[in-house]
């Protein structure tokens, strides 16, 4: 069977090839899958998509016409795929329902520690042999309050680390996680979490109910010296409102591994291009803001789990098996 994978990063390619192990004819492309590139999948029964691909009705129609029968996304999120259109077109859709939660939780803490202790600024200075400490003062996390929005596997992993620092834990989710309760977490409403937390980390899926959960009102409720971290989905945060909050001199630090308009920017070299996204450009000017390129998941352990699950999705499709990764089952035989 012919399989084409889009948005394949160089470090990911050998793991992807190993996972498929010659069972199918695999073609790895560094292209983004969208309406301009969809025709390159012609003749491939399986398309392995990435989170930055655009799988709207138009793209899915091109895939279906070209012979694609399965789209399997190498990510947990799937808000970039029009599932209703896939059903109408007879396309099966799968994803990776879970992988190492530690990869994202640990990276969220890396951002939190870096912005709190001014690590990027310190490294920039010392490279110029400037060893002054002015402006580098941070705070102990011990004894302070961590607010965690979304307490699933990743949120729980973040909470365990926070407990190790000796922090008070506040959580907000549609259901309470017994593991988090055992750590001493108190579940509260979002408004109270925003008001009382010194460190706020987002670990929610992007859904209509969570879109811009951190908006202007939420930002106004936060402490002036709060630290805000987002390693989940860019759409959880209103970036325009965040810029205005930072312009007011509020928030001690912000760590962003995701951005609402990251498609076509993150994972690419745009260093020689004219920056047309004024919001992203403005965010990058604040010294207390650290932006990374959607790399929280990017550990050998997590990527290996992702590509193995992707290969398993293909085998399940061929065998007619269903499982937790399946979002749209294949059409019933007539």
TrEMBL record:
<dbReference type="InterPro" id="IPR006139">
    <property type="entry name" value="D-isomer_2_OHA_DH_cat_dom"/>
</dbReference>
<feature type="domain" description="D-isomer specific 2-hydroxyacid dehydrogenase catalytic">
    <location>
        <begin position="9"/>
        <end position="326"/>
    </location>
</feature>
<protein>
    <submittedName>
        <fullName>2-hydroxyacid dehydrogenase</fullName>
        <ecNumber>1.1.1.28</ecNumber>
    </submittedName>
</protein>
<dbReference type="InterPro" id="IPR029753">
    <property type="entry name" value="D-isomer_DH_CS"/>
</dbReference>
<dbReference type="Pfam" id="PF00389">
    <property type="entry name" value="2-Hacid_dh"/>
</dbReference>
<dbReference type="InterPro" id="IPR006140">
    <property type="entry name" value="D-isomer_DH_NAD-bd"/>
</dbReference>
<keyword id="KW-0520">NAD</keyword>
<dbReference type="Pfam" id="PF02826">
    <property type="entry name" value="2-Hacid_dh_C"/>
</dbReference>
<keyword id="KW-0560">Oxidoreductase</keyword>
<dbReference type="InterPro" id="IPR058205">
    <property type="entry name" value="D-LDH-like"/>
</dbReference>
<dbReference type="GO" id="GO:0008720">
    <property type="term" value="F:D-lactate dehydrogenase (NAD+) activity"/>
</dbReference>
<feature type="domain" description="D-isomer specific 2-hydroxyacid dehydrogenase NAD-binding">
    <location>
        <begin position="110"/>
        <end position="296"/>
    </location>
</feature>
<dbReference type="InterPro" id="IPR036291">
    <property type="entry name" value="NAD(P)-bd_dom_sf"/>
</dbReference>
<comment type="similarity">
    <text>Belongs to the D-isomer specific 2-hydroxyacid dehydrogenase family.</text>
</comment>
């Amino acid at each position: 069977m012919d399989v084409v994978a889009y948005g394949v990063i160089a470090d990911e390619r050998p793991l992807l090839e190993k996972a498929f192990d010659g069972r199918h004819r695999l073609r790895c492309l560094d292209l983004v899958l969208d309406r301009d590139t969809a025709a390159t999948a012609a003749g491939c029964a399986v398309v392995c998509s990435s989170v930055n691909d655009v799988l709207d009705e138009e793209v899915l129609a091109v895939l279906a016409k070209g012979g694609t029968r399965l789209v399997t996304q190498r990510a947990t999120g799937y808000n970039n795929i029009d599932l209703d259109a896939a059903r109408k077109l007879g396309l099966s859709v799968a994803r990776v329902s879970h992988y190492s939660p530690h990869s994202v939780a640990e990276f969220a803490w890396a951002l939190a520690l870096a912005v709190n202790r001014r690590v990027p600024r310190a490294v920039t200075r010392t490279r110029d042999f400037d060893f002054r400490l002015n402006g580098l003062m941070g705070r102990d996390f011990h004894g302070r309050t961590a607010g965690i929005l979304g307490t699933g596997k990743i949120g729980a992993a973040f909470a365990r680390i926070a407990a190790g620092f000796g922090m008070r834990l506040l959580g907000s989710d549609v259901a309470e996680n017994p593991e988090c309760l055992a750590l001493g977490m108190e579940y509260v409403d979002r408004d109270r979490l925003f008001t009382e937390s010194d460190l706020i980390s987002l670990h929610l899926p992007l859904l209509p109910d969570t879109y811009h959960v951190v908006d202007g009102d939420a930002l106004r409720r936060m402490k002036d010296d709060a630290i805000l971290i987002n390693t989940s989905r860019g759409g959880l945060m209103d970036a325009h409102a965040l810029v205005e909050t930072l312009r007011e001199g509020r928030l001690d630090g912000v760590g962003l591994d995701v951005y609402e308009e990251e498609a076509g920017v993150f994972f690419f070299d745009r260093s020689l291009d004219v920056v047309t996204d004024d919001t992203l450009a403005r965010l990058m000017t604040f010294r207390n803001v650290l932006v990374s390129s959607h790399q929280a998941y990017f550990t050998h352990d997590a990527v290996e789990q992702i590509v193995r699950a992707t290969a398993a999705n293909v085998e399940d499709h061929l065998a007619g098996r269903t499982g937790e990764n399946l979002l749209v089952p294949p059409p019933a035989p007539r």
